[in-house]
Amino acid sequence: xxxxxxxxxxxxxxxxxxxxxxxxxxxxxxxxxxxxxxxxxxxxxxxxxxxxxxxxxxxxxxxxxxxxxxxxxxxxxxxxxxxxxxxxxxxxxxxxxxxxxxxxxxxxxxxxxxxxxxxxxxxxxxxxxxxxxxxxxxxxxxxxxxxxxxxxxxxxxxxxxxxxxxxxxxxxxxxxxxxxxxxxxxxxxxxxxxxxxxxxxxxxxxxxxxxxxxxxxxxxxxxxxxxxxxxxxxxxxxxxxxxxxxxxxxxxxxxxxxxxxxxxxxxxxxxxxxxxxxxxxxxxxxxxxxxxxxxxxxxxxxxxxxxxxxxxxxxxxxxxxxxxxx
Length: 326
Fold this sequence. Notes:
By secondary structure, this protein is α/β, with parallel strands linked by helices.
């Protein structure tokens, strides 16, 4: 056999195999779960996490040659699937695709959770999406600085999708950084927050990009600024917090893949490799871009550190401003 003619990966495998052929045969560690893998997502079907979970399942079938199916629950509290995955043990048969809030924000602000956050471990980060600070068109400010200046003089009512959301953290960071009197007005969901802004029921809100875009394009709301480090390709004319001199209030929502903490290292490593390869496939990258999710593919210790850093920062903010559900 002409080993030089083989593709690099196959050549390494063949030569490696020849090198140990005469040695003892050892049982191979598990490199993928024995049965099918289910990708669970608690978000509504229009949420980027749910859309990406569905496409990721197909991509993983390609990169792992293993049966992988999406399980889209759209649970009312967004937590039922997280509990199921956290309790699913070490088989690797269930993974959670979710916004990072499931382990970075909720442990700090919710008194009771249907899962132990420490029983979930980040396998990968698929990308990051900014939020949008929006106002009713008739009351919108041209610049974020003008909004802040007004809110220092008189209080403005601002909505988010909940106390356990990235939007709430962005609002808390903005208030803390500027002293603006942006009073949180509880709204049941992101979509209802957008509707309340459009009706003029509230002075503004900080909402996920995917919920803001249709209303902004229709002229129903005015996008004043985005909370990410870069302008969104979907709202290219809208400046960032950093451009407006408020980079310290920047917030993004990460789309993460979580596994039970009990997952064996060999399984986790193999699944991480397949996830990274799947996330870099052209269909996944094209879909993420269309959803406004910036590519930030991380795995292993890089994903763990990224999420841990975010969780620590959110914990500091929650404690500093007294953010806690009653």
